[in-house]
Design goal:
Number of strands: 24
Shape: elongated
Structural class: alpha/beta
Strand content: 25-35%
Largest sheet: 4 strands, mixed
Bound molecules: ligand EPZ
Number of helices: 15
Mean pLDDT: 96
Helix content: 25-40%
Length: 420
C-alpha cells in the first residue's frame, strides 16, 4: 500500500497546473447516457474516480476511451444494461448520477443504494423524491432502487429542494432535459460544476434557463445529440494548493484556476493573510506575513466549500490566534483532527464545531488518511511540519488528486511516494 513521505519546512515557489474538476467530470460522463451521439470531454483529469465511472458506464454498454495524453474522454453508444451494481456504487457514490439519465432516456434504472461513507450517511432521498415528482415509481428492494418512468416517459415538475444538494440537482437536471414539459428546480445547488453540466447539456441540445442561479428551468426535448465540452478547472484542487503555498510561506501560480470558482474561499484566505491575485492564466497565491486565525462555516456555493474545510483547518493549525471551524454539510467530517493532533496541532471539537489554536510549529509524524480531503490536509500539515511526515493509505488521495506529489515536488516540496 503506497505511502507519501514529506520532509517539511520548505516554502513552495513556482507554477502548479490545475487539472479538470473531478466533480464536474463525473456528472458530465453520466450525461453521455442521455445522448445518441458521441460526447467528447476535454481537459478530463486522470483520477481513480474517473476510471471507476468509466468502468460503470462500460458495464452499462457505453464505449469510453480515455486518451490521457490529450486529456480527452470520448463516450459513445447506448446503454444496454440499466443496472448499476453494488460493487461499483459502494466504491464511488457519484455512481448514483446514472439514475436520472437512465430513467429519462430508457424509462428504467436499477441502481444500488450507495450506502454511507466515512464522512456521513449520504442519503439519496432527494434524488428519489424528485424523480417521483416527475412520475417515476420506485421499488426499494435488496439494497437497490428500481425506478420506472410512466408509460409516456418522465413529466416536467416543479421541484423545490428542502436543502441544497449537488448530486440531486445534477440527477434531476439531467432527467429534466428529456422529460415531457417544463421542470423547475428551485433551491438548486449553484456549485460551478452544476453550471458546467448545464452548459454541456445545452451543447447537446437541452433547453435550460437560470444557469448559475438557484432556480433552473428546463424545457424537455425529444433527444440530445453529441457534443464536445471542456471540463472546468478543479476549484478544490486550486484551493488545496493555495493552502499549500500559504502554509509553507511561499508564492505559487495556480495555472488555469478561476477566482470566481473559489467563492468564499478566496475571501477567507485573504482574511487569513494570504494574497490571492488574479492573473490572465490563473491565480498567484502568496503568503504575505503571518497567518491570522479566521473563523469559517461551510456552506453551499458560493459559501465556504465543505471540500476545503480539512485543508483550511491544517492552515489554521499554524496561524496566530484561534479559528472556529463549523461543518454544516456533513455529519462526520472531522476525521483529520486526531491525525493533525498527532503532529502537535491544538484542536478541540464538539459536534459540528472545532476550535483550532495555532501553534508555532507542527512536528512530522506517521499519520493515517481516512478520506479524500482529510488525506490532503495531512499532506499540507506535513509540508509545514518540522521533520518527516508519513501519510498512509494514499489510495484515498488518488481518487481526487492527479499526481499530487509530482505537482508539489515541482514547486520545491520534499515529497515522494513510497510503494509497498
Ligand atoms: C457532492 O456530493 C460532491 N461530490 C462532494 O465532494 C461535496 O462534498 C458535496 O457535493 C457538497 O458540496 C461530487 O460532486 C461527486 P450533496 P453530494 O448532495 O452530491 C444531504 C469530494 O470530496 N443529502 O450536496 O453527495 C447530504 O447528506 C466529495 O470531492 C440528503 O440529505 O453532496 C449532505 O448532508 C465529498 N439527501 C448534504 O445533503 C439527498 O438525497 C449535501 O450533499 C442528497 C444529499
Amino acid at each position: 500500500m503506497d505511502r507519501i513521505v514529506i520532509r517539511g519546512g520548505r516554502p513552495l515557489n513556482g507554477t502548479i497546473p490545475i487539472s479538470g474538476a473531478k466533480n464536474a467530470a463525473l456528472p458530465l460522463m453520466t450525461a453521455a447516457l442521455l445522448s445518441d451521439g458521441p460526447l467528447v470531454l476535454e481537459n478530463a483529469p486522470d483520477l481513480a474516480d474517473i476510471a471507476t465511472m468509466r468502468a460503470l458506464l462500460e458495464q452499462h454498454g457505453l464505449s469510453v476511451e480515455h486518451d490521457k495524453a490529450t486529456r480527452r474522454l470520448t463516450l459513445s453508444g447506448a446503454a444496454t444494461s440499466l443496472e448499476a451494481p453494488y460493487d461499483i456504487v459502494r466504491k464511488m457514490r457519484a455512481s448514483v448520477l446514472v439514475m436520472g439519465p437512465l430513467v429519462a432516456r430508457f424509462g428504467e434504472a436499477r441502481v444500488s443504494l450507495p450506502g454511507g461513507c466515512a464522512i456521513g450517511t449520504r442519503p439519496v432521498d432527494l434524488h428519489i423524491k424528485g424523480l417521483e415528482q416527475m412520475g417515476a415509481v420506485f421499488d426499494l428492494e435488496g439494497g437497490y432502487m428500481h425506478a420506472k418512468a410512466p408509460p409516456g416517459g418522465l413529466r416536467g415538475a416543479r421541484i423545490i429542494f428542502p436543502q441544497v444538494s449537488v448530486g440531486a440537482t445534477e440527477n434531476l437536471l439531467m432527467a429534466a432535459t428529456l422529460a415531457d414539459g417544463v421542470t423547475e428546480l428551485v433551491n438548486a445547488a449553484q456549485e460551478p460544476e452544476i453550471g458546467d453540466l448545464a452548459m454541456c447539456l445545452m451543447r447537446m441540445g437541452a433547453r435550460i434557463e437560470g444557469i448559475g442561479t438557484a432556480k433552473l428551468t428546463v424545457e424537455g426535448v425529444k433527444r440530445l445529440g453529441g457534443a464536445t465540452h471542456p471540463v472546468i478547472p478543479d476549484r478544490i484542487e486550486a484551493g488545496t494548493f493555495a493552502c499549500a503555498a500559504a502554509i509553507t510561506g511561499g508564492s505559487v501560480k495556480l495555472e488555469g484556476a478561476r477566482l470566481v470558482d473559489l467563492g468564499a474561499v478566496a475571501r477567507v484566505l485573504r482574511d487569513a493573510g494570504v494574497d490571492v491575485a488574479e492573473r490572465h492564466d490563473g491565480l498567484q497565491v502568496t503568503r504575505l506575513n503571518g497567518l491570522h486565525g479566521t473563523d469559517v462555516m461551510t456552506e453551499p456555493f458560493p459559501g465556504f466549500a465543505t471540500d476545503m474545510q480539512a485543508q483550511f483547518m491544517a492552515l489554521m493549525c499554524v496561524a496566530d490566534g484561534a479559528a472556529m471551524i463549523t461543518e454544516t454539510i456533513f455529519e462526520n467530517r472531522f476525521m483529520h483532527v486526531p491525525e493533525l493532533m498527532r503532529m502537535g496541532a491544538r484542536i478541540k471539537y464538539h459536534g459540528q464545531s472545532a476550535i483550532v489554536r495555532g501553534v508555532p510549529k507542527l512536528s512530522g509524524a506517521p499519520v493515517m488518511a481516512t478520506d479524500l480531503r482529510a488525506s490532503v490536509s495531512l499532506i499540507l500539515a506535513g509540508l509545514a511540519a518540522q521533520g518527516e511526515t508519513i501519510v498512509n493509505r494514499v489510495y484515498h488521495l488518488d481518487r481526487g488528486y492527479e499526481a499530487v506529489e509530482r505537482k508539489l515536488a515541482a514547486v520545491g516540496a520534499q515529497i515522494e511516494r513510497v510503494g509497498g
